[in-house]
Amino acid sequence: MNPQINIGVLALQGAFREHIKALQALGVNALEVRLPHQLHGLAGIIIPGGESTTIGKLAVQYELIEPLRAFSAQGKPVWGTCAGAIFLSKEVGRNQPLLHLMDITVQRNAFGSQIDSFETDLAIQGVADAEHPFHCIFIRAPLIEKVGAQVRVLARLPQDGNTTNGIVAAQQGHLLATSFHPELTNDLRFHQYFLSLTERNHE
Amino acid sequence: MEKQIGTVKLKRGLAEMLKGGVIMDVVTPEQAKIAEEAGACAVMALERVPADIRADGGVARMSDPEMIIGIKKAVSIPVMAKCRIGHFVEAQVLESLGIDYIDESEVLTPADEQFHVNKHDFKVPFVCGCRNLGEALRRIAEGAAMMRTKGEAGTGDVVEAVRHARSVLGEIRRLQTMPAEELVSFARDIGAPYELVKETRELGRLPVVNFAAGGIATPADAALMMQLGVDGVFVGSGIFKSGDPAKRARAIVMATTHYNDPKIIAEVSRNLGEPMVGRTASSLAEGEKLAKRGW
Fold it and tell me: Using the beta-carbon criterion (under 8 Å), do B14 and A139 form an inter-chain contact?
């Protein structure tokens, strides 16, 4: 891994501090991004959890939408967690600012209110196998309802009672979406996986 | 592994998602929509904003569930609601309504002068007020998953918010430079559990997210609190008691994100219209000070 690599974390609102800590633990130079010029020189960017309407509106106000699309068009990896996944998506079934980058349809607050938030262990393709599952934290989490032909499903919830085996992690080339929060655990495997996408981009 | 709900991680985790944001007091579904549209990261549903509670006097209680449900239906962002200090049945009612966060708040008239709610009993997370580190850690020991410095609600005077934030953050800085042998005495002196004192020292911050509240009325006030080192701000009367609530709400959201950028704060502060009519915290009679409620 190249320790000189710069990774941005969109720091408009939400849990950006935790992503920065995880990236630093992997020896990467992590930078807060609040304005378009701060995208300069980054190899990839993470859009954190938070409130997707807040993040979207702040991104519109300071004209980050087009620069983020251009950033992705260069093939540079973009990873959205929870609210970030919503912001990355094409469709959420309601009117709010979106990047429309990833061919996924997302349902917001798919599980209900905060008392329905949950933690569970899951296997994630390319990241964690069933023997060493990933501890996934879902907080007022969205579900990925539909994915396009270019999108690979990385993880689903097990079918149980009233929850469908909904998609909770997906990848479309250099774009990643997770409805849970790897940054709230000490497990760095998902961040490592994201960094491997920037390396692929360098080659 | 079985699915787990109501864990400490989930309760504290939601607060992590609110960081860098503005939580706004709203009294109607229409106000909630204005707040969401302006970029609030959550709303606090209540019947009267603190400035009106002050003006009206009398006993302030949990809001009518009908009104809370109406606000919950109106927005997609998290909805918080207040219960009285120690009133665990009001808390049970709010939990049953599917509220996302309960504020055990000194703004309402306390129901118990000795004990706060045992917040471990609930699946829904709680936020509580504090004036200093000891009070913050006592609330966290009772299960609070988020803190807010109290300030003096309903005044539009930021001085108490600054005092309380400086007190909490200053005591944490002092704790970090203290020799280890002084920790137990320090914990005794501030009336906080030793384990939480130790954890706070190791983290260099409170074990939970800490917002500022009580008197924030302008974008510069919000940025001031952020630069002092809090994680986000509550704005109560400051928005909907001002001349142009939508515009002021947007401006405070911008200033909270770009708190280190005076040019942006200047830009968003232009032509905001009338701020709320303030009342200096120092002019309040002792009995009028809400921050003194709770211990």
Answer: yes
